[in-house]
From TrEMBL:
Alphabetical list of PANTHER family matching this protein: CELLULAR REPRESSOR OF E1A-STIMULATED GENES, ISOFORM A (PTHR13343:SF17), CREG1 PROTEIN (PTHR13343)
Protein known as: HugZ family protein
Organism, scientific name: Ottowia flava
InterPro entries found in the cross-reference section: HutZ, Pyridox_Oxase_N, Split_barrel_FMN-bd
Residues of the Pyridoxamine 5'-phosphate oxidase N-terminal domain: 10-144
Gene3D superfamilies xref list: Electron Transport, Fmn-binding Protein, Chain A (2.30.110.10)
């Protein structure tokens, strides 16, 4: 971890490294009602000129059509609940972002593919399926809750610093 990130920036990076799924919020393409779905995510520190969150979405999924109609999105990433601990203390972040689908075989698409498969090697075969595509989320801001009584807004510049560190795949603990 780099020392130049503030303590809460380090906590945000640790959360993004530890969690592999988030709740993707998009606006329903037929009416604008909010829609939320669970998605795996990776971070591409190289991105398309800036670090981005990478999703691998089916063209058949409602959230894909939603993001094509309106690129505004949110991604909620939360620490897991711990039995006996207060849920109000869970570290979490809601990233506000703009979605984009990189052109096939573009440098941005190849970079997104590499970042996603590095984090999810078991999903490499899905990159070959015709109805799936990589979608990148460029964060524009965030609201971070680092624990009870520790909430703050995070600007795009600090988010870029955090995401530039990438998200190495954490070891999976057999349960």
């Amino acid at each position: 971890m780099t020392a130049h990130l503030p303590r809460l920036g380090q906590a945000l990076h640790q959360l993004l490294c530890a969690r592999r799924t988030g709740a993707l919020g998009s606006l329903n393409a037929s009416g604008g009602a909010p829609s939320v779905s669970l998605v795996p995510f990776a971070v591409d520190p190289l991105g398309d000129g800036a670090p981005v969150i990478v999703l691998h979405l089916s063209g058949l999924a409602a959230h894909t059509a939603n993001l094509q109609a309106d690129p505004r999105a949110s991604l909620l990433v939360s620490a897991p609940e711990v039995a006996g601990s207060p849920v109000h203390d869970l570290p979490r972040v809601t990233l506000d972002a703009l979605a984009r689908t990189p052109a096939p075989d573009s440098p941005a698409q190849r970079s997104a593919h590499a970042a996603y498969v590095q984090r999810f090697p078991e999903a490499a075969f899905m990159a070959e399926l015709g109805d799936f595509r990589f979608v990148t989320l460029r964060p524009t801001g965030a609201r971070q809750i680092a624990g009870f009584g520790s909430a703050r807004s995070v600007g795009a510049e600090e988010l870029a610093q955090v995401l530039a560190l990438g998200t190495p795949t954490p070891p999976i603990n057999p349960a």
